[in-house]
């Protein structure tokens, strides 16, 4: 693989640089894996073919998670909670696959997903020089945004192939210090093969979320099709019958969503004092509304289950992250690191390094503007005032009519040619939309919006149209025809004329707020995002000149390789073992008197005597992960599956900002527990056989 290092060539000429990575830290690019570190610390020395095989066996879910190919017949492994939205979309009042689980006994029984897209990374290349050349120093922030976006779209268009389902993304790394072109193979015919009951997958519920020890069978299996047939995989991960053991080196290949480890102190202080507290207000409101509604009927609970889980998970993650930001020791480490970098910049005679001097103040100014527009940006452009699938559809139709008429490279990025096919996949999905749940969420968001800006606010009054939030939500949801995919497609294909002729109340609402939404988006892009992008690019170059090429970029929901050892830890003076076992599941349930959320599914109770209770169930390792890694395979040095990442412990929530392997751990389902459960609890021997042999059984 040819990979140009651009400005890093300067760095490689600098001798004696101090490595900034400690322990098992790192979410490494496949184009720059830590081979030297792995060889020196663990004696691990594999050829490039090992890395390429693991890379092409790894899968990204457009719904926000990771996965991997685990058979030559296109079988994909991920978490139950990654696939939960897809299970819910194909469920109805008679079939609750999210709650009760699903098993396709034959290929014909595999259920096709609605609007799911999987991406497999094929290649990477550095396009930094071409993109940086498009932006000159004399450009205004607005012109810089336009110029950069235009060249990015040119690169993506030149490398995409809609007919062959080849997707091209330009990925921003090192906060703007580099730009890489990622080429993906895209799959859109995805079918569900197996999922356990949610109670088995999320045993312990919210109380155990982000905790350890754990006893969760958080797994789901899909199959990838092309031309109505399962694909044949040249690259897939083989299964380890032996699993892992204490102290063993393991790897995690997945798509961590976002970290903020290279953020300046000013940005961390914004998150601590403004961003996270406001976000928690929203999450707390949503959780209360959804929980109360879910408790009314079992059908309500089914309809809200996946959204409620997402809200609860986000709430707990934000609380953990905020706790880290409020820890003087953690922030003190960041202050010290930034002071060292500033001192290095001030003492350097290199013009490239010196250019980073004003960058810290630029970012601080941008963060002040970000705080000023937070509510406006959240409620309008972020859609926080209009929590409704139907509003999202209406806005997409409205903007598509306007944006698609513009020349390529000048549109909002989500409507550029490189993104439009994925947008259409979701827009035309026949996923069911429930009026009662839509009214619930829209009522809550309209109420939060009105109380935030005040009932006398002119736009609030226009949005509510003389009605209470509840009555306005009912009017909008019950009056909209956008639940019908055929209606959506007709309006989409009709363009601006169809939008102008539409009397749909949701489209009318989208029209009402669109100018204000676009205005605050423009402010964010030109006064927050663009100044920060250029400032962080300058800081990234200075940091590389200081610390060398042993660092890695913040997570960007692109494929990364992490490593670590299977290892327990000590919490409050108590030793926490690396492994739990199936016997511990039954003990943990009994300790809680088998009451929700520690109650066991009926088949687990009935088949206890068939199981080997000493089988390892969950385990922890020191690999560096974050949200987005859910569904990532854990593999041994031979590249065999030994586990499946599904969570981190509560101490890992600070990894968004700084790495610490003393007690932070990644939590996985053990490969041995998966096979034991498939064979002895679910009678899914065909899936177990496919995993252990790599081939779908022939019948």
From TrEMBL:
Keyword terms, alphabetized? Aminopeptidase, Hydrolase, Protease, Serine protease, Signal
Name-wise, this protein is: Dipeptidyl-peptidase
Question: What species is given as this protein's source?
Answer: Telmatocola sphagniphila
- Matches recorded under PANTHER family: PERIPLASMIC PEPTIDASE SUBFAMILY S1B
Enzyme Commission numbers on file: 3.4.14.-
Please state which protein family the record places this protein in: Belongs to the peptidase S46 family.
A single MF term (Gene Ontology): dipeptidyl-peptidase activity
The task this protein performs is described as: Catalyzes the removal of dipeptides from the N-terminus of oligopeptides.
**GO biological process terms on file:** peptide catabolic process; proteolysis
């Amino acid at each position: 693989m040819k990979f140009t290092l651009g400005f890093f060539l300067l760095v490689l000429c600098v001798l004696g640089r101090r490595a900034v990575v400690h322990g098992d830290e790192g979410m490494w690019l496949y184009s720059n894996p830590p081979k030297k570190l792995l060889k020196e610390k663990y004696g691990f020395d594999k050829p490039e073919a090992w890395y390429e095989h693991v890379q092409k066996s790894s899968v990204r879910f457009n719904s926000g998670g990771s996965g991997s190919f685990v058979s030559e017949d296109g079988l994909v492994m991920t978490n139950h909670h990654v696939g939960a939205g897809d299970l819910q979309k194909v469920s109805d009042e008679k079939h609750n696959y999210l709650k009760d689980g699903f098993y396709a006994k034959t290929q014909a029984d595999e259920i096709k997903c609605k609007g799911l897209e999987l991406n497999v990374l094929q290649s990477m290349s550095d396009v930094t020089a071409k993109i940086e050349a498009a932006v000159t120093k004399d450009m205004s922030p607005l012109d810089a945004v336009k110029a950069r976006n235009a060249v990015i779209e040119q690169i993506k268009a030149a490398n995409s192939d809609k007919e062959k389902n080849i997707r091209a993304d330009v990925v921003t790394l090192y906060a703007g210090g580099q730009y890489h072109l990622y080429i993906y193979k895209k799959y859109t015919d995805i079918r569900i093969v197996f999922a356990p009951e949610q109670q088995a997958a999320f045993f312990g519920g919210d109380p155990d979320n982000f905790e350890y020890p754990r006893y969760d069978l958080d797994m789901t299996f899909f199959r990838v099709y092309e031309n109505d047939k399962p694909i044949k995989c040249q690259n897939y991960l083989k299964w380890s019958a032996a699993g892992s053991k204490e102290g063993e080196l393991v790897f995690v290949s997945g798509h961590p969503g976002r970290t903020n480890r290279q953020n300046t102190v000013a940005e961390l202080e914004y998150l601590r004092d403004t961003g996270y507290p406001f976000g928690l207000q929203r999450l707390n409101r949503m959780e209360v509304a959804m929980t109360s509604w879910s408790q009314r009927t079992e059908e309500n609970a089914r309809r809200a289950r996946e959204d409620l889980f997402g809200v609860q998970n986000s709430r707990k993650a934000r609380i953990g992250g905020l706790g880290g930001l409020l820890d003087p020791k953690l922030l003190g480490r960041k202050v010290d690191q930034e002071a060292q970098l500033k001192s290095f910049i001030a003492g350097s005679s290199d013009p490239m390094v010196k250019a980073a001097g004003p960058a810290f103040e630029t970012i601080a100014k941008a963060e002040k503007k970000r705080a000023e527009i937070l509510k406006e940006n959240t409620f309008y452009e972020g859609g926080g005032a209009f929590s409704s699938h139907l509003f999202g559809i209406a806005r997409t139709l409205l903007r598509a009519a306007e944006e698609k008429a513009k020349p390529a490279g000048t549109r909002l990025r989500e409507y550029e040619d490189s993104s439009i096919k994925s947008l259409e996949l979701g827009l035309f999905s026949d996923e069911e939309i429930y009026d009662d749940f839509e009214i619930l969420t829209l009522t809550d968001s309209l109420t939060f919006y009105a109380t935030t800006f005040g009932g006398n606010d002119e736009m609030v009054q226009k949005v509510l149209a003389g009605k209470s939030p509840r009555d306005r939500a009912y009017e909008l949801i019950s009056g909209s025809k956008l639940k019908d995919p055929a209606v959506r497609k007709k309006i989409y294909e009709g363009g601006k004329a169809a939008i102008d002729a539409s009397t749909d109340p949701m489209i009318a609402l989208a029209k009402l707020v669109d100018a204000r939404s676009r205005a605050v988006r423009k402010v964010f892009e030109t006064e927050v995002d663009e100044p920060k992008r250029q400032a962080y690019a300058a800081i990234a170059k200075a940091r590389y000149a200081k610390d060398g090429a042993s660092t890695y970029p913040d997570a960007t929901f692109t494929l990364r390789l992490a490593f670590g050892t299977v290892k327990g830890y000590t919490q409050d003076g108590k030793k926490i073992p690396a492994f739990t076992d199936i016997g511990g599941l039954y003990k943990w349930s009994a300790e809680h008197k088998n009451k929700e959320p520690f109650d066991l599914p009926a088949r687990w109770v009935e088949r206890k005597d068939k199981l080997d209770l000493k089988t390892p169930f969950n385990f922890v390792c020191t690999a560096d992960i974050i949200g987005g890694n859910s569904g990532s395979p854990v593999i041994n040095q031979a590249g065999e599956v030994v586990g499946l990442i599904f969570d981190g412990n509560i101490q890992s929530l600070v990894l968004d900002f700084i790495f610490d392997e003393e007690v932070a751990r990644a939590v996985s389902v053990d490969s041995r527990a998966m096979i034991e459960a498939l064979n002895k609890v679910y009678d899914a021997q065909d899936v177990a056989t496919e995993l252990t042999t790599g081939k779908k059984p022939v019948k």
